[in-house]
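User: I'm curious whether this sequence folds into something compact or stays loose and floppy. Could you predict its structure so I can see for myself?
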Amino acid sequence: MTTLRLTAAQAMVKWLSVQMTEEGQPFIAGVWAIFGHGNVAGLGEALHGIGPALPTWRGQNEQTMAHTAIAYAKTMNRRRAMAVTSSIGPGATNMVTAAALAHVNRVPVLLIPGDVFASRAPDPVLQQVEDFDDGTVSANDCFRPVSRYFDRISRPEHLLTALPRALRVMTDPANCGPVTLAFCQDTQAEAYDYPVEFFDPKVWYIARPEPDARELAAAVAAIKAAKSPLIVAGGGVLYSGAQEALLAFARTHNIPLVETQAGKGAVDGDEKLHFGTPGVTGTACGNELAAKADLVIGVGTRFSDFTTGSWTVFSAPNRKILSINVHGYDAAKRGAMALVSDAKVALEKISQALGTTRFADPDFAAREAWFALVDGLTALPAGNQLPSDAQVIGAVQRNTGKTSVVMSAAGTMPGALHTLLRTAKGGYHMEYGFSCMGYEIAGAMGVKLARPEADVICMVGDGSYMMANSELATAVMMGVPFTVVLTDNRGYGCINRLQKATGGAPFNNLLDDSYHVNPANIDFVTHAGSMGAHVVKAGSVQDLEAAMQAAKSARLPTVIVIDTDPMPGTGGGGSWWEVAVPEVSVRPQVQAARDAYIAGAAHQALVR
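Assistant: Here's the prediction. I'll summarize afterward.
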């Protein structure tokens, strides 16, 4: 057997560089790295040596580097991914939040945190977390519950089995998610004679699981027996590449559809059978259909509480759920009739079996009435009043086209965008599985790296911007242009509204309602400009629209700051959402909110 003597770190990067997609591209597009003790001497030297065959990029924070990698993989519909490496200790634990985000969203990312010495000779090493009862534990064990696959590389030959397992998980349509390879720092530098054939290029195929014949027959029978079916399209539609199959299925059988946060953009918003969105952030016309549907056809959705209105939205008597999902765990939720299959394959087979079956027209007048309402909510504000978030979204709507991608993650914007924004096919990117504040700017960079031809608009509030903004400097350094619309409502306006809606007094959310000696006065224009971005302070919605047009030709990130009113919500749509209200309180507002909570939960009980 011919061998090649390499360090474990050199072997890892060499192997990763030759793992290919069906389209002939490296599956791992590159590595985000912040070096420290634990990865600089081993992986750092190896990455330097391999050069552009496996590009290395430097970020500002381990969590946000991973967010960029996740956004890239999500935008690539999981066909390509990125790796992220950190030092041991805080560098590693900074990535745990990102791992959880990727796990919830079923998105592949390869995390390579440095780990303690396998030899244990210098224990306790700097930043080492010691478990008083378990000598095998390190800080990296935090990754176990938020990784689809976890391994600790404490010997060089471990790579021979760990690396193929890692890529198998990352390319598995059902078990796809984050992989953590905790890499002991002395092992990284240790040499081993690896078989030469280990480094032969390998093509990884994304499988399309076929449905079980019995499940397929039951699904077809359920649809034929329905009177008012409704399609709920989730992120699995995008990951399967089933957008055209979904549209053909809906049109052939005249079945209306709504899209979840992860599924929004699967179908063009102008499609007449597209009734918007369901649940807490649902359109009025979408939720009306949801309430009448006797068969809910979920396609690639997890049926989260926002999609279901905490299981109050799909409320028709004796309604049934058919869940088409590539993973049995998701397909069988809530006693659904499960069809475990790739979405594209399932839709095509069901449609073929249904033949000429067509259903009665949905209420198109309700759809038109909803969009007329939205036009009013998103119109230009009158006079000099501060605009609402809906009016800012209206400006974005008027200045985006078929090649635009609007993205966000947390706060007011996800709900408002899901409810109000009409997007073109492929024009929406929302991280709302984990709703992680601080994802937005890093995520926008990831989206733009995946789709350099797209006009990427990042919608972020001042609270989320303050949580994590440093990858703006990275985007400037790397010359990755996108537009940031930064809405300044002086605090956490979304949670302030939720606090008041559940009977609470305004407290610790808006800056003026938080403890302070000196009033907060954050200059976002100067701050963003200090990182090298082009910055505009928009004094009005009209100024915002002009700045958005100018940003389309920019070669650097553009940040447009606009002051907004924190009080209004979306102004339309939505449903009940279960947020527990205290059972005991001296405040009458809380008591009233508790009564409303109990009333809402009573409707929820009908669908359990």
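Summary: The radius of gyration is 25 Å. The chain has a mean pLDDT of 96.
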